Amino acid sequence: MTSAVLLAAVALLGLGIAACAAARTFRFALPLQSAGAGLLAVSGFWALAGGTIFGSAFSGAFTPRFGVDGLTAFFLGMLGLVAAPTLAFASRYLDPGTRGRVIGGLTGAFVLTLAEVLCARDPLTFLAGWELMTLLPAALILVSRSDDAARRSVFLYVAVTHIAGAGTWIAVLLAAHAVRGSR
User: Fold this and answer.
1) Which of 56, 94, 156, 170 could form a disulfide with 121 if both were Cys (CB 3.0 to 4.6 A apart)?
2) Coil, helix or strand at residue 142
């Protein structure tokens, strides 16, 4: 049952992101995303309270795998707890123009990416989510502000996070190699 709630959360977030594409559906976009984030919180805390573990286990294979354990459930719950009201109130600050719709879509994609990083159970899926988790905020900043100071800040942010992220890539790939080599 918990996995069905999590899938519904992902579906609502995805529908909310898609609804950002057109001005006439934009007014439904952020409430859909907020409802999806709320379901993330419900599914996470429900799995945590019930001690439910579902999906794939961690693997060193390079095939997409997703799963939820106790720690993942806690962080999914916290992600939803923070994202749901944020997305609900964001609708008051974004207009249905192109910039507002793009910001709304990128924000929903960021929340979905955070959930993907939490649920990833293989190196490839984790690292793909890690990259998106780094690049989506940069895109959000550039869409919301396009002045020189914003561009310089984004360049510095991306440079620093990718330098630090290189260590993450190396550690995850070495761990995957160690897991695969021990079999």
Assistant:
1) 56
2) helix
Residue 45's pLDDT is 96
Q: What is each CA distance from 55 to 2, 4, 65, 111, 168, in whole angstroms?
A: 11, 11, 8, 20, 24
Query: How much is the pTM?
Result: 0.87
Write down the number of H helices and E strands in the chain: 6, 2
DSSP string, 105-159: HHHHHHHHHHHHHHHB-SHHHHHHHHHHHHHHHHHHHHHH--SHHHHHHHHHHHH
Please state, as a whole number, how many other Cβ atoms lie within 10 Å of the Cβ of residue 80: 24
Within 8 A by CB and 6+ apart from 175, the residues are 60, 123
Query: Does residue 164 surpass a pLDDT of 80?
Result: no
Specify the long-range contacts of residues 55-60, CB closer than 8 Å, at least 24 apart.
55/3, 55/119, 55/121, 56/121, 56/122, 57/121, 58/121, 58/122, 58/179, 59/121, 59/122, 59/179, 60/122, 60/123, 60/175, 60/176, 60/177, 60/178, 60/179, 60/180
Write out pLDDT tens, residues 57-103: 888 777 899 999 999 999 999 999 999 999 999 888 898 999 999 99
Check: CB of residue 34 under 8 Å from CB of residue 24: no
Question: Does residue 36 surpass a pLDDT of 80?
Answer: yes
